[in-house]
Task: structure prediction
Amino acid sequence: MRLGLRGRLLLVVTGAGIGLLLAVASAHEWLASRAAEQSLRAALEVRVDALDREACEAGRAPLFGRPRGAGFHGEDFPRRAHGRRRPPFALHAYARDFAATSGGPPLPARLREELAAGSGWSVAPAGERALVGAMPTAWNDGPCAWVALTLQAPPALVPSATFGFTAVTLLLALGGVVALAAGSTVGRIRALAAEVRAVAERRYETRVTEHGGDEIGELGGAFNAAAAAVRAHLDEVEARERALREFVASTTHDVGVPLSALAGHLSDLREAHARGAGPDPRTLDSAARETHYIGALLRNLGAAARLEAGEPLRDAGDVDLGALVERVALRHAVLARAAGVELGHAVPEEAVVARGDVTLLEQAVDNLVHNAIRYNRAGGHVALVLEAAVGRFAIRVRDDGPGVAESELPRLAEPRFRGGDARTRRPEGSGLGLAIANEAAALHGFELRLRNADDGGFEATLAGPAA
Amino acid sequence: MTPRILIVEDDEALGRQLADRLRQSGFEPTWLRDGGAALAVDPTGYALVVLDLMLPGAHGLDVLKAYREAAAETPVLVLSARNDTPSKVRALELGADDYVTKPFWPEELLARVQARLRRPSLQRESVFERGALRVDLDARSVAVGGAAVELTRAEFDLLAALVRRPGSAVSRQWLVEHVLDPDREGSARTLDVHVSRLRRKLGPEGGRIATVWGVGYRLEP
Result:
């Protein structure tokens, strides 16, 4: 079972209180017994000083106290006004060999030893509730060589009932105060816990009340700060999740459309085959274009995901641009043939190398070539040329297609893949491709120039420092 | 001799297409569907390996590593659906010679295979002969049908640049910078003049010099 804060406080206070009381009680007892010893010695000294040898040896009464039988039992001091009883004294004489000569009780062994050893004073407990003190007489001989005084019932040996009562009362009062103080603290902590649970249930959109300038108030403040951070993080995650959902939705659409077109082409081919007709080359070409489009889309989605994450260029290495251009040209040969577009390319004899991420750079060039073929007409041309001069490279993609309206030019490479209405679908615009090319170039610190060529057509140039 | 090509690809349709396409193009393909089976093969018996990465039995990169540890020089062309730079770098570090990402067109893969087997692509011999055309790069002499053709320095350098890489286009910019004398005739317009003169001088073989739109010129192989 777990102990609550209140229970633990009570337990600690009670334990500490009892320990403290025991210490006080034992100190009290020690002090009281010291006091009894001192008063016993003082009383004895007074009597020994005034002792008459003859009277003592005769067994007669000494200066103080009344004779009672053979000994001297006396109530030496008057009763106090409030009636608290003074302890009674009894004075007895002993011979040199410690034999009782006035009927006193035998002296304890320790006391006898100390006196015999020459100590001028000795005290020892006698029985359960008495102290006996003894000292030599001035003559220290005969039947009255030593005198002893017994103090009955020294008050210090037994703590009074009053003391016990006071102690218990104090303890209870202390416990009560502690319980009360802890009660208010516990109550505030419980209230705070309930508020925290409520805030968590409302997905950290509300705050807890911060009252009191003490640690509990501080706790509330700290929770509010933590809740705000959690909320901000949740907002971010939710926004990302929303973007991802929209991304998947628009991607599904983007892939779905060319796939449907492809399915249509295949179905046409099958029907033509059933009729006994040969495949229509135009249908075959369209199917090839759609397939190519889907492949390009997939590659771009991968690149977009990386660019959209906004990470710095991590996987930079030496990129053989000649090989890159050859790969892009090879990849688009089928598409160009299907589109009836002549794709030519050239790279210099010497190697041209740039620092960069080969995947992103290749995707950028891929997109430039893909657009040039897609927006061209049958019988058109596309040229892909890698050039190098004075420490710089340029990859030029030219076509003799319709070009782009001048008003549209500045908007071409806007990062349109961000946000919900991310990717515009062809033929309305160049969509994802140019934006990715632009972002990839920017990430590398390269330049992407888009313009209408002087003698018609469109020209895109990716340029940067050669390594 | 028909070059033998090892295909390691677990997908039935893709593997069959690759094997068929390579066979049609004059290769002798062997098709394995399992990484474990690929590990048991000695790659040195093949001219080239087409290796998929996601395989049952053993991962493609482990197969690649085993082939390289066996000190086999056989070129390995890696096929992967992963289009990211670290994957490519890792495959190349492990000794892959080329990396083709899916989706790809069969033509693309075939061209990559041929390019790998054909290397080096630069014309190494000093004498180039096609049809009636004979170009001796060292002797700087040209003949058509056995008859010597007199060329100017610029015309010969122009032809030599095309001959060194038959079938590949050479850009106008490169030709202007490397062939023309910058002090006298360094313009693109001059280049066209040189080309038309060269074509005329080569007579029936002049047609081999093709104009590539927006790029430059190419010698048809």
In short: The interface with chain A takes residues 83-86, 88-89, 101, 103-105, 107-108, 111-112, 115, 122, 161, 164-165, 168-171, 173-174, 177, 212-216, 218 of chain B (CB under 8 Å). The mean pLDDT of chain B is 90.
